[in-house]
Amino acid sequence: MSDRPRIPDEEFALRQARLREELASAGMDALIAYADQHATFGQQNARYLFDYQPHFEACLVVVPREGDAFIATGPESEAFVRASSRCESVRNIDAFCHPDEEYPHSRIEPLADVMRGLGVGGGGTIGIAGSEFLPHKVWESLRASTDAAFVEADAILTGLRAVKSAAEIAVIRRAYRIAQAGMEAALDAIAPGVTERDVAAEAEYAMRRMGSEGMGIDTIVGAGRENTHAILTRTTTRPIGAGDHVLVTLAPRYEGYHGAIARVAAVGAIDTEIERAMTVAIEAQERTCAALRPGATGAEIDGVARDTCREADLEQHFAYSGVHSVGVAEFEPPILTSWSRETLRPGMVFSIDIPIFFAPWGGLRVEDGFLVTENGAEPLQDCPKPIRYVAA
Questions:
Q1: Model pLDDT, residue 1
Q2: pTM over 0.90
Q3: How far, in Å, CA of 109 to CA of 276, rounded?
Q4: Are residues 26 and 127 in contact, defined by beta-carbon separation less than 8 angstroms?
Q5: Is it true that the peptide bond before 64 is cis, omega within 30 degrees of 0?
Q6: Which ranges in the chain belong to alpha helices (H)?
């Protein structure tokens, strides 16, 4: 197996073929999927279908039930799409042109003309994926360009993505190796007087050296109560001090796929309640991992971590459903909640993220990735989980 695996060309063709089968089954004539450069969710649709990572200009990935699929984007991206993706057909549309720029050497089409070319009119149905991120003006242009009905279609794409192929699993394994290297570098860098951004820089440098193309979320390095209390943390120039606990969360992206690991370090002596919470979080994750097996339901899996925290009187700090799939988005369905009826299958990949936040002493999480196998769950990293103690 290559140390730098990639998704093969034929797999992208298979994805589009499977998508067309799903469109036919759902009675849809075409799928239009929005994508942009935003790291957390923006790239997922274009990356999954065409291995395209938008930059600067957003795009629409258009897959008719019959006929050639293509990417519709702005004129500055046409050559970029051809050079960097698995897509050969690109259309420049007015909806994604910068309003104050001119492009004299590009052929720019009105979005309405592109839509008419699909041949989907009254009585037809077009599926939309990524509509929650679709700019209002683009959405209005789409609606004005056809009298076909638009329906939500995200579930079709996320359903196709739920069980990973062998090639995807190889890529995700690499992403977790990258995340582990970044975590080791981050923990080694933590010391009194070092800033949160210094630690983040060491982690990101190590991950870039391992082949990371970017981050699925901004690198989180938060120290002390104030910068760990909330679920989200902005990494700052604050120096780490004696008595701080430091939360590090990393989510590198490799070939479009993610790994996500979170750990805690301590500078000198820290509040014993933090140590207790960390012990509970590790136990909750390990018990959840033991329950992660084919045939289990999402609600059953979610309940394991919640019950562990409830038994330790920490349920009020269990801030969100911590078990979710990992793929071309760092956080993607299936998401295993207290009401989830999802049935686990071999080949699914889950992050088990135990979140303990909004406590008097701040917050923390323990996060790791696991592959569901025929016999249970396989860890995708080998990072020690207990708090890393650093001399003050």
A1: 46
A2: yes
A3: 61
A4: yes
A5: no
A6: 9-26, 44-50, 78-84, 111-117, 136-145, 154-161, 166-189, 196-209, 272-291, 298-311
